[in-house]
Design goal:
Blueprint (H helix, E strand, L loop, with lengths): L4 H9 L16 H11 L12 H17 L2 E2 L5 E11 L5 E6 L2 E2 L8 E4 L6 E11 L5 E2 L4 E2 L10 E5 L6 E2 L2 E2 L12 H10 L4 E5 L2 H4 L3 H4 L6 E3 L7 E5 L1 H10 L4 H8 L7 E27 L10 E7 L19 H19 L6 E7 L7 H8 L8 E7 L10 E5 L6 H11 L3 E3 L14 H6 L4 E5 L12 H8 L6
Parallel strand pairs: 6-9, 9-12, 12-14, 16-17, 16-18, 18-21, 19-20
Antiparallel strand pairs: 1-15, 2-13, 2-15, 3-4, 3-15, 5-14, 6-15, 7-8, 10-11, 15-17, 19-21
Helix pairs in contact: 1-9, 2-9, 3-9
Amino acid sequence: MSRHSAFALLMVAALGLPACTSDPGALITADGIMADVSVLAADSMEGRGAGTPGEARAVAYIARRLEQIGLEPVAGSYLLPIELVGMQKDVAKSSLTIRGPQGAIPLENDRNVTYWSTAEEPVVDLRNVPVVFVGYGVEAPEHGWDDFKGADVRGKVLLFLNNDPPVVENGDTLFGGEARTYYGRWTYKFEQAQKHGAAGAIVVHTTQSASYGFSVIGNTGSRQIWQRTYQLDFLSWIDSTLTERIAASMGTNLTGLFESAAQRDFRPRDTGYRLTTHIETAIEQVQATNVAGVVRGSDPALADQYVVFTAHHDHLGMNPDAPTDDKIFNGAQDNALGVAAILAAADAFANADPRRSIMFVSVTAEEGGLLGSSRFVANPPLPLRQIVANFNVDSPQSYGITRDAAAIGIDMSTLGTTFSTVAEEQGLRPAGDPNPNAGSFYRSDQVSFAKAGVPALYLQAGKDYVDSLGFDPAEFRLRHYHQVSD
């Protein structure tokens, strides 16, 4: 079996299909998958940025493929457009200063700091705003944990540590241990800042706490940002070197900040730093597009139940100001490969006889904050109660055959039990999240379905390779993730 088809066949087998052809899984081939990848990741797609001409070309291609495969359109069309609000900071006209007792810290835009605004205002000015360290910024009543303890942080800029508090009490981890919970996500930190009336938020980046290097998010403030649930004047990431300087002025170091924030008696404290910023932002309405097709179920008692397979087709687009000659973020693994995988599975399902209806959705604007999937769930083309499961595919590995198959979220619903049974039937060992510290369940489109009460899994291929790869796949992915080399 080819290295790609083992992964895609697991998706087909997951529903225990009787077949109209002798073996619908045989339609899933590495060559077929890579043919779709080569089109979707081509330079002509210009990185498939949401709402761009490159995305429009990718959407047209995916819709044609769904039609060729024989899937029915959803609600009369394969195309499900959504409206987005895009915000682009004017880098040349924007500025940031963070000044403390020893003077201003040396900021290098997109190298050790990145900043932007989601206030949906063309101009934002903050002058000498106090920067307050709030630890992890977690309020978890189920654990009796409160990092704010009634502190009034309205109008201030909050400095957050990334990840969850690493707390062990009576031999038990208080949060997720190695497995990041939603409290550890940077989106939660920004939501907390808005909840407490802050002017802004800064998240401290370390490779260990984020599970990726600063280069992955370093140019966030220079890219187009999409409308989110939080609207704040100022948002930022800073790297560990800048945080060390802030910590030193507080009489400690970066390690000391992490240690103090892991204590129940932690309280917010003024860093002694003041922030001044001027941000000019161009705001525009943008149309992006989800693409969907369906294979109708054959069992009258089950055909109104839908299993939804998702993969996002958008990526990071282009960066004309990139310092290298290559300015296109092609996104081959992230996530042209995922889209190609569900197209291959769609071909197999179209030649099988599924009892339930199977919908395939290529979603947009995942990179901007899971916006395509969240809009799909908020305004589904069928009653949400009819969606009984979601399988999401994002950046599947393509390095070699594995003895195991992973499903992130395997322990979050009974869908994980079904996955485990099917994996074992295919001679594969079921596994959970191969990198739990990354908090991947909260970082891709399956979480939009899970939040709405739909059992969901994020499918991966595992990491127990049959043959030696000759390289470290985790290091390889880290080096190419969100880079033009993907």
